[in-house]
């Protein structure tokens, strides 16, 4: 059984919402060292004031810079790749910048991890990578493909790569929750379409899902958690029931509903009690290594508007307050 005991862990984009919660969690374990790799010195400075554990190291760098990654990965056992340009509108307006970070950066992570002998790499993905309609989703789909294929690219080296794909994170920076809270005083909440639905997961759940899959991964899997859906109109009621809702129309690159497993992906998907695994299409992949899973039904897809688990307004209120 794989364990993080006495391991050195590096997290790219480590000053973000996920990174900070992840660091808090792993510092409760008997890890050797946690390295925060990111490009914003102010965020690193602020994080260093909050986290004073001597096992933390801060490393300024960009995933676009392969030489800097090579230096940072020295002695690293586990890499969690959370760095990305992820705001849909910004990626649409700056497409090649998104490509350089989300795709070229992914390949730099892969090559450096193999060269440095990292044991395990988990890359964070998004529901927008399934049947993407925006550039952010397209770059993350390409990134997912790179990380899955990296297991063959590694050859007989020990490095193994897997992907975790989940939905919108409650309260993460840039998400709709802090935006709605910020503008509730105006009395109006803008919503692009009243039919819109999204998958919903908390930071704590996302961090735990990554930790669980570090233990169970064989290399090449895309792990998808079973999580609830919510209606954006219900979220508005939960945050500011006194506000009026103003329908603005769907923005460029936006979907009505998000998918995490497409019907085509389903042909190689296994279902477990609390998650799914999209299996890689490798000649050497043995489905028996995912013992306990069962193939999903023909025609299955995992989409936010057809989910069988929905959050009520009251449940959303509790999540938002947390």
Can you describe what's shown?
Helix 5 (95-116) runs parallel beside helix 6 (135-153) and helix 9 (232-239) crosses helix 11. The strands form four sheets. The protein has a ten-stranded mixed beta sheet, with helices on both faces. The protein has a three-stranded mixed beta sheet with strand order 7-9-11. A two-stranded parallel ribbon has the order 8-12. With 322 residues, it is α/β, with parallel strands linked by helices. The protein has helices at 17-26, 41-50, 66-72, 88-93, 95-116, 135-153, 176-183, 203-216, 232-239, 263-266, 313-321; strands at 8-12, 33-38, 56-60, 78-81, 120-124, 160-164, 168-169, 188-191, 197-201, 222-225, 229-231, 244-247, 259-261, 269-271, 275-278, 294-295, 302-303. The model has no long low-confidence stretch (mean pLDDT 93). It has a domain at 8-168 and 201-226 and 267-288: NAD(P)-binding Rossmann-like Domain (Rossmann fold).
Quick take:
It is built from 11 helices and 17 strands. The protein has helices at about 15-25, 40-50, 65-70, 90-95, 95-115, 135-155, 175-185, 205-215, 230-240, 265, 315-320; strands at about 10, 35-40, 55-60, 80, 120-125, 160-165, 170, 190, 195-200, 220-225, 230, 245, 260, 270, 275-280, 295, 300-305.
